[in-house]
Amino acid sequence: LVGPDLTQIVSNNQSISNISYPVVGASYLISGVVQDSNGLPVNTMVFATTTLYGLNYYVQANTDNNGLYILPVIDGAWIVGTSMAGYGQQIVNVTGVNFTASSPFQQWRQTYFSTVQLTNAGLSGIAAPVVSGAGYTNEIAYALGLDPRVAKVTDLPVLGKTSVLSLSYQTLGFNRNLAASDLTYQVQVSSDLISWTPLSTFSGGVWSPSNIVFETPTANPNLKQVQVRDSVPLNSPGKRFLRLVAIHS
Q1: Cβ neighbourhood burial of 28 (10 Å; 0-12, 13-18, 19+)
Q2: What is the Rg, in whole angstroms, of the alpha carbon atoms belonging to the chain?
Q3: Are 242 and 159 in contact (CB under 8 A)?
Q4: What is the maximum span of the chain, computed from C-alpha positions, in angstroms?
Q5: Is the pLDDT of residue 79 over 80?
Q6: Contact 214, 202 (CB under 8 A)
Q7: Phi and psi at residue 211, in whole multiples of 5°?
Q8: Cα(46)–Cα(82) distance, rounded to whole angstroms?
Q9: What is the pLDDT of residues 84-135, one digit of tens each?
Q10: 140 exposed, middle or buried (CB, 10 Å; 0-12, 13-18, 19+)?
Q11: pTM for the whole thing?
Q12: By C-alpha distance, which of 227, 103, 130, 126 is closest to 175?
């Protein structure tokens, strides 16, 4: 097994729980021998380190009586060195194992959170509240293409109205993160704030139904401004409430 080198700062009388420590199974071995200038074996500690998905993975082993060592590793460019003075470090490239690319949400997390924060689902997890204190989750910030460190209440979807054939309709407007291909966007409607039904759903790159949805480019090429129109005019009997739901797959 190969694990990352993580740092947790603990204050006096503080407890930290639910620490995420992503350990992976070793796929390869780096082995060799440590010798002195006379070719004699050296008993010392050998280490290897690499950065993968924003985390620093680290392994170490002691040489045996013959100066031999074996280090379990995974794909990556490993910096291999020894604790003995006078010995330089070497780079060993290990290849052959296929890795799945980070998901769009993982890439978004790595953009805004530090290595230590990435290991804490309470800060960087999809259900965690944004660190800015705006009162909504990272999932919503991700859906709207926001920086969770500075996200504000005013960044949330806003209600408006539009006219079609002399009739006024309620609308819900928001920005859609074009990189969030692992999200389903759904605008829902309710008459009592208890039971909600889909008004229009964005999945697989299209809105359905699409005739009540209008998307326009923004100054940010990674965002589109979305306006979803209610299907019932404002002067109709009863109450109508709209909301946006983001569903991570």
Answers
A1: middle
A2: 26
A3: yes
A4: 94
A5: yes
A6: no
A7: -70, -15
A8: 4
A9: 887 878 887 876 433 345 688 988 988 898 877 888 889 999 999 999 999 9
A10: buried
A11: 0.62
A12: 227
Contact 229, 209 (CB under 8 A): no
Task: Give the tokens for residue 189.
Answer: 């409607």
Residues in CB range of 225: below 8 A, 6 or more apart: 173, 174, 175, 176, 215, 216, 217, 218
The amino acid that residue 123 corresponds to is: L
Quick check: 134 and 152 in contact, CB under 8 A? yes
- Counting residues of the chain whose pLDDT is more than 70, the rounded percentage is 97
Please give the Cα distance from 114 to 149 (Å, whole number).
Answer: 11
Give the pLDDT of residue 74: 84
Q: Which residues pair with 202 in a beta bridge?
A: 185, 207
- The Cα 209–Cα 197 span in angstroms is 13
